Amino acid sequence: MNVNDAAVIIGAYEHPGRELPDKSLAQIHAEVAIGALADAGLTLDDVDGYFCGHDAPGYGGGWVSMAEYLGLTNLTYMDSTESGGASPIYHVSHAIAAIAAGKCNVALITLAGKPRTGIQPGGGGPVAPQDSFEMGMFTGAGLVSTYALAARRHMYEFGTTSEQLAEIKVAATKHASHNPNAFLQKVLTVEDVVNSPMVADPLHRADCCLVTDGGGAIVVVSREVARTLDRQPVRIMGQGEAAKLTNGGRLDLTYTSAVWSGPRAFEQAGVTVDDIDYVSIYDSFTITVLEILEDLGFCEKGQGGRFVEDGALVAPHGRLPFNTDGGGLSNNHPGHRGGVTKIIEAVRQLRGEANQGVQVPDCEIALVHGNGGDLGTRMRSATMILGRDL
């Protein structure tokens, strides 16, 4: 039996808040947990598996303190795998494996952050082995500048333009205008994007993701549990994980680790890019989306700029509708970790519950992709293909 047949996604919930000054980080985790369980028709007492990243505050990579805070007294399996923005997608894959192995039956995955009005955990810790070599080289450089290096190299190699990158932001803003909870509601034009202030050449402010509070949660359950619940399940058809390292400094900035995680997910799912109706693509920056689309095989390497032109990503009738909630570029990027919202919107699309105006007709197969780390240095990816359950 394919391990994926053992479990389904049955609950998904995104916190409606984007600025939450009066809530603690633990409160946000708790609220999204309760929301996702309610969506599934379950309660905290039903949970026997808990998964979180280092955005969860406290001991044990966060899960010990959060399990206590949530009152999860029936846990038989716990996982605090940390993969940045890709963490929730890793967690879904690990939850499936745990359920298939009989380690748990109801897996709760939470993510939350407060970088807009509070402090985001996850910093500090032991010095990484590369830090003594690299920190001096990166003095004065920020996260945006390393993504800008990737964008500039892609432009140099393939002729990609700022206007083409802007098409990605324009699509995101059009989708966010249908989302009452989206942080940015204004629809932008290509001219608006390229005329926004330059942050790190060639990336403008509008090429960059949001900084928001908030969070989300996912519930994965065994097939046996799903049959007892009155909620539309979502199949996990295929998964892939991969990492891209610096290769001793011989680093090609024009591709991501999606070149490995994507084919693994497609092979396991038994589908091709032509079968995908909707994509949730990690959108920390516009260049992130463009390179991932290429690496997943939706177009040839170097052709991403042309691929996204002329409304190709705009729902409901574009060639490849993407991030129909507005994504991290316009809706929500809780705690600088957009992976959970990518899963949530894919679940909405497959259930036919996306916002009016962006629901993809007869959406049967969706792809979710998350990134962790830095496009300009080392990174890890997780790709997951989801299907409408029969």
From TrEMBL:
Pfam families: Thiolase_C_1. InterPro entries: Thiolase, Thiolase-like, Thiolase_C_2. Residues 250-388 form the Thiolase C-terminal domain. Coiled coil: none annotated. NCBIfam families: PRK08142.1. This is Thiolase domain-containing protein.
